[in-house]
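Q: I have 571 residues here and want to know how they pack in 3D. Can you give me a structure?
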Amino acid sequence: MCSKLTVIDIFCGAGGFSEGFRQQGYKILLGIDSWEPAIKTFNHNFGLNCKAKNVLDFEDSIEDIEALPDSDIIIGSPPCVTFSSSNISGKADKTSGIKLTQIFLKIVAVKKWQPRSKLKAWFMENVPSSIKHLGNEYTFDELGLGEWATKNKIGRSKVAIRLEENQRILNSADYGSAQSRERVLSGEIVKRKRLVIPPPTHNRERDNYMNLPLWRDLGSIIDYLPSPNCKNSSQKIVDPNYPNLSIALHELTDNFYDTGLFECEWRQSRFLKVNHPYMGKMAFPENKNRPSRTITATKIGTSREAIIYKSEYKRKGNGEYRTPTVREAACIMGFPITYQFCGGETTKWRLVGNAVCPSVSRAFAKQTLRELKLPEQSVPIVETITHMSENNLNTFSQKDFSIPPKRNKGSRFRRHPFKDGNITVTLSNYDIDKNEKTISKWITSVQYGNGEGFPIFNFPDYYYKNIEQTIITLPCGKEFIEIMKNGFSSQISKSKKLQEMYEKQLSQHPFLEPTELVENIAQIIENFDIEDEFYVQSELAIFSNKLIVPLKQVFALYAINKVSSFANKPR
């Protein structure tokens, strides 16, 4: 057992960074965070009494920095939301993220360079895109420490913190996490004057020269934890990450509740994953034979990034698929099953998604012990933490799916049946080419290419009549037209009702709301064996600038245009 090296955790959040160090025998002295649920969570799990504090308070107060406990290790994970590439397509203002990161580095600099410093290492975690927004190095002047440096007989222009060559993008899957989560780790072993990267514990490839175990897959968590629809009992369950830790099933918090999605929700996510207008295909539902994708701070079941499984409840439509429970997400991150989180489901999910994976921080904690010639913990030290019954999400009951969520009034709609031949035929309620911000009328358009900025062409209403006789002469064309006329057309409502159904996310017999109409078109066309059939444009050029077009897209144009034409038809 090593002597108790001490740690302070800045931007501590739920404490994932600290948890990895605790598992290697370090003593956690202090956590700093301005968010009350984070501090409550941190205090509960580490037996501390820290107060919520804004790190910005340290910007103009060196005295406050000097008053912080002198610790052997400083760790921190500055908020990454402004650096994240997913934040407004990566165009968000980076100023606040840069400022908070520089304040963290300022704290580290004071504790590193102060007389009789005991600091042995520091580590900082952030999203990979943060690298390009931070400097390679920071002088004392640049960190607002010029006068402090002079007072301590250090040159103001001397480099206080060097990031260049002291940061590396790492994947949590390489360190035993059951998710593929890339983050940049920066820092320094002070006596070495550089960052030392711990060796990976797992490997992506089956044949690797280090003979490491393969990356852990999602199934190693989801299939190992008890199912969310289990009945309450006293049976023993074992932690999927820490085999030496077991508790009674009824002691497992935040896992036994129904996270099922309304059909309109999971269908939206499925479309964005497998049929996105200009992005690649993703698995739906999740592939449990691979590591999970990154657990994000926002839980949503309708996005491309949503993590979705088949529900254990035997349901079709509403509730057929579900998102992870908070406990499943926490285990995917690498938290022990006894770790507790404060707040409601949304708050707990944010605490989990914003955390540092304990498996990664544990690797750095262990490497630091090696560098200091101190003994490591071969088996992680995992605390048994009293659960917070007042915050437990467990209900041991099914969800009510009687009222689906509604979209905002005037919501825009855009959907295509499939991508084929580098073409999409789209139904929308606004002009995509002009990127209208409000809805206008239902429009049929074709997009040439799979990226933003590719040519778009709008078709007039009733264009389908111009190509009907041509389609009849094509393979399966006559049968397709018959279906369109005898059944499909009667499911198309007028424009106002089509929009109302879309906003309510609910079809009203005999009409289908627009997402179902487009999915129905895709299914009808897929049922014909025309995957390898093409239309060679000669006398009738249906698609501009294309000589050969997949027959599926010709059929799709007919059907989509029929929808927009019928919807826009005056009463």
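Q: Anything worth noting?
A: Residues 71 and 368 are 14 Å apart (CA to CA). Residues 83-90 have pLDDT under 50 and may be disordered.
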